[in-house]
Amino acid sequence: MWEKFRKFILTKIFKKHYYRTGKCKGCGQCCTHIYVKHFKHVLKDEKEFDKLQYLHKFYADLKIIGKDELGLIFECKNLDPETKKCKIHFWRPGICRRYPQEELFSMGGTLSDECGYKMEPIIPFKEVLKSVEKKENKKIIRKWF
Ligand code: SF4
Ligand code: SF4
After folding, report:
1. Residue 11 maps to a domain
2. Is residue 12 part of a domain?
């Protein structure tokens, strides 16, 4: 009963599709392969990034290390390369505290293989398929009667 209620709140009120399970193993991977989403797009242009650096301190701490089909790839200067720990852990920005969130998927990103977190669908694929089939069957019945 509680589980059903929880699913209802997450999916209908908060419009979420995934649960986050697991915990951080401190591998530092997510701090060395970062995409930046600004409004609805992932940053692809270095000039746009130059302007963004004045908007938030987090951006000023990022260094461009590459680019792929998704956009610019950044590394955070606050990651200690030897210990793989965040040098400003206590003051780290909200985006780092909340990582990973399902918005990552909406911009085409994925969790690294080393990540200790997993994102599990709130409604399993089987249930989604069942409900689609039910709707389709209803449509067919309405068509015939
Ligand atoms: S501020 Fe810390 S936690 Fe956030 S990306 Fe940089 S190194 Fe990682
Ligand atoms: S990739 Fe996952 S396990 Fe590694 S530091 Fe980031 S959140 Fe933690």
Report:
1. no
2. no
pLDDT digit string, tens, across residues 71-83: 999 999 999 999 9
DSSP secondary structure letter of residue 90 = G
How far apart are alpha carbons 112 and 130 in whole angstroms?
A: 31
DSSP string over 86-111: BTTGGG--HHHHH-S-THHHHTT---
The tally of domains found in the chain comes to 1
Closest ligand 1 atom, residue 28 Cα: 8
Between the CA of 145 and the centroid of ligand 2 the distance, in Å, is 55
How do residues 86-102 score in pLDDT, each as one tens digit?
999 999 999 899 999 88
> Whole domain around residue 98: which residue ranges?
19-144
**pTM (2 d.p.):** 0.77
The answer, yes or no, to whether residue 12 has pLDDT greater than 90, is: no
Cα 75 to ligand 2 centre (Å): 14
Residue 105 lies in a domain: yes
